Amino acid sequence: MKSTMMPVQLSINHLLDRAGRYFPRHEIVSRLPDKSLERSTYGDLHRRARQVAQALRNKAGIGRGEPVATLMWNHAAHLECYFGIPAAGAVLHTLNLRLSPEDIAYIVDDAGDRALIVDDMLLPLWERVKPLLRIVPRTIVHAFTGVPVPEEYENYEDFIAGDASSYMYPEQDENEALGMCYTSGTTGRPKGVVYSHRSMMLHALTECAPDVIGLASRDRILVVVPMFHANAWAIPFAAIMVGASQIFPGPHLGGEDLLDLMESERITLALGVPTIWLMILQSLESPTRKRSLVADMRMLVGGAAVPVSLIAAFEKHGMHIVQGWGMTEMSPLGTVSALRPKHASLSTEEQYAIRALQGAAPPLVEMRLVTDDGATQPWDGVSAGEIQARGPWITGSYHNAPQDSEKFASDGWLRTGDVGVLDADGYLRIVDRSKDLIKSGGEWISSVDLENAVMGHPDVTEAAVVAVPHPKWGERPLVVIVPKSGRTVTEEQLRVFLAPYFAKWQIPDDFAFVDAIPRTSTGKFLKTALRETFKDYVSRTPS
Ligand code: AMP
User: Fold this and answer.
1) Lowest mean pLDDT among 240-244, 350-354, 482-486
2) What Rg, from alpha-carbon coordinates, does the chain have?
3) Pocket of ligand 1 (CB under 6 A)
4) What is the pLDDT confidence band of residue 348, given thresholds at 50, 70 and 90?
5) Which of 41, 70, 183, 335 is the catalytic position?
6) What Å distances lie between residue 468 and 41, 103, 511, 535, CA to CA?
7) Given 3.40.190.10, 3.30.300.30, 3.40.50.720, 2.40.50.140, which CATH number is that of 438-533?
């Protein structure tokens, strides 16, 4: 029997229209570079995002399915692009401003970006990217600082000017591309993940559910997680669905600045990586001034493991952390550590321990644990395996890349590269990471890229890089080096040598010189042995 339901296609454009119709006065607040606040509404967003769409189609000739990049901080204009680019039928491609110019150039070329919308304060970075590009996309500059846009560039406000009230969205299938993000590869270059209207709608609906993140129109959400990293955990799409207000910190990510915003904007929910929350905690606990925050404020913290101590410390201030785990390939939501009714009778400490787990998968996400030899592990809280996942918002391939058995199982499940255990209730605990990457302050450093670069130094025979814990940044890279016999090389020389190839924050502070690096029987570096040797190593990166 065929269903009698209408075959209406899921589309993010519906959310934009809905916000214009139902929540025209709900607020969007952006902190500008001079720290003043700019206030706008979903009514403004509805109008201006359609202007963006119309300009992209009519002035820039952007066609359906063509990528348009953004290089921007978190603010209202970026939100306009989040909706305006897809409303043109084009693909929102957020560029990560923390990457090196070389990586950004590779990503722009690989995506084939047709246009770029860039904050004026990021033009110096873009100027370093441009000479490395095969084709420079049409560049439109958003005057975020308020200073006039340099003559040689097109001004965003001029570009989007014009009445778009009769703009018609292109008819699109729900499986057409809506956006794309690049993710750091363990080896080789970053890889593109492409989201569809359908995947983003289902993901947004699920995020709104009470036991997932639980968004409501009364929420005022502080979006600290970057809009250039995994779509700010796709919160802009979920928030608009319910009409929750969105508050954007712009480039001001210090603890005091964020606390000021939480206080003045009456924030009810904030999202960010643990490094940000550690800074906020420091400010919160400095005796300068008592803060008056909204009672029972919630925080979604993820991107790296959340220690019990962080959960407990914020509880003292009446602020409740919920942990999330996921990845760019998963849109990014994979699990959320919400408590269940059976946990109500547990002691406070026992509840904290559950909240420090990565949590359970929401509806539509399936998970399994698989060992190196392909066995599926039981959900008993002790048997570990690589986490593999499947679901409508989980990528089944990478853009422009051949299907890779390192990243996908033979039956198509995503291999996350995280190693975990699942308990009988389905709560995940991450115990290790099999991918050779270091996560520092929420952003990646490739160990393999560092190793290859260090081994390019004329006085180095071999080098292996492992992650060491860091109290603020989560992890930092430790470079273990075997110098060439009879030669010496200093840490400072190595840092200078690495500088042209990496972003500043990716350059290691920690080096160890050894006679030999342990290897596996097949000749690969035995990183488990190195991690064991350096398990008590204290990183020298300042906090
Ligand atoms: P990204 O694709 O950059 O968002 O990074 C995703 C990766 O970050 C995951 O595969 C994990 O290795 C790590 N990650 C994200 N959230 C958590 C978490 N709550 N606990 C531990 N690791 C996490």
Assistant:
1) 482-486
2) 23
3) 183, 230, 302-305, 323, 325, 327-328, 332, 358, 416, 418, 430, 433, 439, 444
4) very high
5) 183
6) 44, 24, 11, 7
7) 3.30.300.30
